[in-house]
Amino acid sequence: MDSPQLFFAFGALMLIAALLGVAIDWLGKPLRHRRFVRKVYRFSDERQPRRSKVRSTDWSETSFVLPVIDPKAAIEPYRYPESGQPDVLESAPPFGLVRDLGPPTAQVPVVDLDEVFDLERSNDIASAPGLVTLEDTDPEHAQLEPLDTTTGRTPASNHEESHDSHAHGNEPTVEDVGRSHGWRPGQYVFNLTPDGREPSATTVRTRYWKNVATTAGASVFGETNLSRMGDGKPPQRLNHRTGKVESMRLPGTHVGDDGGQTPVPEWPAPEVDPFA
Amino acid sequence: MTTISEMFQNADSDTVTHRGRVVKALVRIPVRDAATITVRRRRASPDRPQGLKIGLDTGVLDVNGHQAQSIVLWTPSSPDEVLLTVRGARSTSIDIWNCWSMGGVDSAWVGNAGIVTKTTATGMILRCSDGIGPSEFSDLEAEITVDI
Fold first, then answer.
1. At residue A104, does pLDDT exceed 50?
2. Of A71, A86, A93, B38, which has fewest CB within 10 angstroms of its CB?
3. Å between A144 CA and nearest CA of chain B
4. HSE-up of A212 (CA within 13 Å, CB side)?
5. For chain B, how many structural domains are there in total?
6. Contacts of residue A94 in chain B, CB cutoff 8 Å?
């Protein structure tokens, strides 16, 4: 093969490679921005993921409870009981770690639906506390604003609150409420570092295993593993098929990985459930 | 107190004697290509989901339209009787061990987990203890029949 033929052959190969790249890029576009969501709980009779509890609304309730978190409220550190250790439930499973939200700073307005329905029946809506009729608003702007599920406020009121917060100086933001600075065993693993930085994945893992070590259910792992977890290391087990020792893994070590939920650990398990 | 899984590790073995019983971490049964394995669940504790894991050394297990080298049968999802077929010319044995799910975590070979076996005319009965609480070999009971 002489030089021109070699050149054209090389060019053709490059063109095919470029076309393949374009095709992969084009086909890959719908897959972008997709987020892998772990199926944390396999069965319906297990505890449901807390995310679904937080985000779902139980319409069978007779009253709505909208938690309103006050960003201006001071965050106080968790106070330990006199023994110096967090309370431990004997029957608690080893992974049911409860997120420490600190002292109750949130104001919780409760609207009783019976009261609202009674008022509607009597057409005395104007006297209902906290209700605004559409007639009172500007018709051009009489549209409902979506409610922010985090704060229980509309975006406009959030914006005002944000300006208000900035006007008062360096105060905690809404996102930071519930995440204390610093961490001690038993506290939320995604707490910020003492100087306000995000904890690294290694820090989160260390905190997690130290937390597990403080629970009564952790005894299932045995003395050696309790000691390891006390040092912030994952428990290990002997895989009797392979004859090798394997460690428990902890996926989701960033606060944004699963909406701030405490991660759920897993053993390496390649088995397929044919009836799932 | 030493758990059964710690006894396995200390003995560096998958078989120990505990309170006069021979307890196994896993059960190995010889099979060959095209053999059919019947797993019949006799009893399971309602406290938490219990499972039985079955792994083939080489080849795949054909069950419910799925093919995999290792499978798991969970009490809430699988039927009481499951038929598996071995697919693999070089398949020689299957390993069976128990597992359980608690707090969303699928566990095996920790705590007081172990299996006590009893041979019958048609196969083998496995009495399994999950790792939670004291060792009671009544958390899961299944009968395994291999038709070679």
1. no
2. B38
3. 39
4. 30
5. 1
6. 103
Residue of chain A with shortest Cα separation from B2: A222
Supply the ipTM of this predicted assembly.
Answer: 0.94
DSSP designation for A263 = P
- Select from A173, A205, A236 the last residue of a domain: A173
- A106: closest CA of chain B, how far (Å): 29
Q: Is position A116 within any domain? A: yes
Kindly identify which residue of chain B lies nearest to residue A266, measuring between CA atoms: B105
Residue A202 sits in the same domain as residue A265: yes
Residues of A in contact with B96 (CB under 8 A): none
Residue A119 lies in a domain: yes
Overall pTM > 0.95:
no
Residue A247 structural domain: 179-269
Q: What are B90's two structure tokens?
A: 């070089």
Handedness of CA A197, A200, A206, A211 (dihedral sign): positive
**What six digits make up the tokens of B144?**
């395994």
Among residues A150, A173, A196, the one where a domain terminates is: A173
How many domains, chain A? 2
In a domain, A127, yes or no: yes
**Distance (Å, whole) CA A153 – CA A136:** 20
- Domain CATH for B93: 2.60.120
Cβ neighbours for A14, distance < 8 A, ≥ 6 positions apart: none
Average pLDDT over residues A46-62: 44
For residue B53, the surrounding DSSP H or E stretch is strand B50-56
